[in-house]
Amino acid sequence: MYARRRAALGLVLLAIAASCLAAIKLLSGGDPPSYSPVNLDDDPWAYRPDREDDFQARAAAGHSHVVYVKSPGGIVATARRVERWRRQVEEAADEAGVDPDLIEGMVLLESAGRPDARASDDLEGAVGLTQILAQTGTDLLGLEVDVARSERLTRRLLRARGPREADRIRAQRARVDERFDPEKALAATGRYLKLAMDEFGREDLAVVSYHMGIGNLQQVLGAYGDDDASYTQLYFDASPDREPSAYRLLAGLGDDSKTYYWRVLASRAVMRLYRDDRERLERLASLQAGADSAELVLHPPDSTPRFATQEDVDAALEDGELRPVGRGGLRPEAFALLAYIRDGVRNISGTEAPLRVTRTVRPGTDMHATGFAFDISRDYANDAQAEAFQFMLDRMLALNLIAWTRDDRTIHITASSEGRSLLGDQ
Known about the structure:
Blueprint: H1 2-28, H2 52-62, H3 64-69, H4 75-83, H5 86-96, H6 100-111, H7 134-139, H8 147-158, H9 163-176, H10 182-200, H11 203-212, H12 214-224, H13 231-237, H14 244-252, H15 255-258, H16 260-276, H17 278-289, H18 295-298, H19 310-319, E1 323-325, E2 328-330, H20 332-349, E3 357-359, E4 373-377, H21 383-398, E5 402-406, E6 410-415
Antiparallel strand pairs: 1-2, 3-4, 4-6, 5-6
């Protein structure tokens, strides 16, 4: 089955290569540049089993931004809170037979290391260190959960007179609602992962199911038609034109579910940096916090040249440092990734109408001044084109090839330097 998919992918990629120059012409509004990307008879970013580890690392990096910027008090403070529970994490992981680093990553992602964390005021919802639902806690994981008493004690906690009384109320609440007991919550999460491991036979799928649910994941795997697939294969091999049923089931579950595993891996990487390279963690935290996407991680300001004036832009266009696109231009690497996106959208959607680039290089100090950023209008020819474009954005973010944000009118994309692999020897 996998060989069949690869053969089909090869045909798609040959079509992409054949349409590349036409797509560039449509994007630029003039004659194609005097160079063309390398012949894409084999997509350099197609999933292959021997690239499993590489794709997992890329997906973790690509989805790190939200982990850094949503961490209460900052990522270093969050990692410090999570580190406090390492002994209990290891005990739960040992009992479940899973990697303790994965459970630790789940703790960072789920609660930022806060045993009192709540998803909402309704305590039927997810609460505690590992954000367990009340019904899941009682029906599946064997926890004592008395929601009514837990809610009364939570209200009392808000009126506590001093730390001592607050601690007494917390201890009482943890007895009637064991989701608020860190040790019992972690043990319950371990039991869940063991159940899921027994069901799927894979650690990665067990972690995915923690957010997605065992039934939903079974349905996606059934649509994909390969119960032995890793989550990496499932995620990167399903698309609107290949395995569309599996792709649309995944997409319908929303980003929180379909990208959960990547964010757990990103959180695991944070904890490793916290222990092994605190300086790099702090540096990444600063870069991630500096923009609405990971664009500064892809192109750090202190090492990325910028075009300060229009004269600089004109000179760069003249000597080939920038490739012309519309009224502006892009670095060759960014140009190649733009063509890769454009051709992917065209071949997946079957829509000939081009996406419209509204902005490329712009003199100044922002990311557009680097020549690596471009904006694409959200005015789509049809739903198929919109779906295909969203697929390309999601896939390339997960490959850590781009960072992107959305506003009312445009998608702002920052291309990494890895587009150079499309340029051949030129």
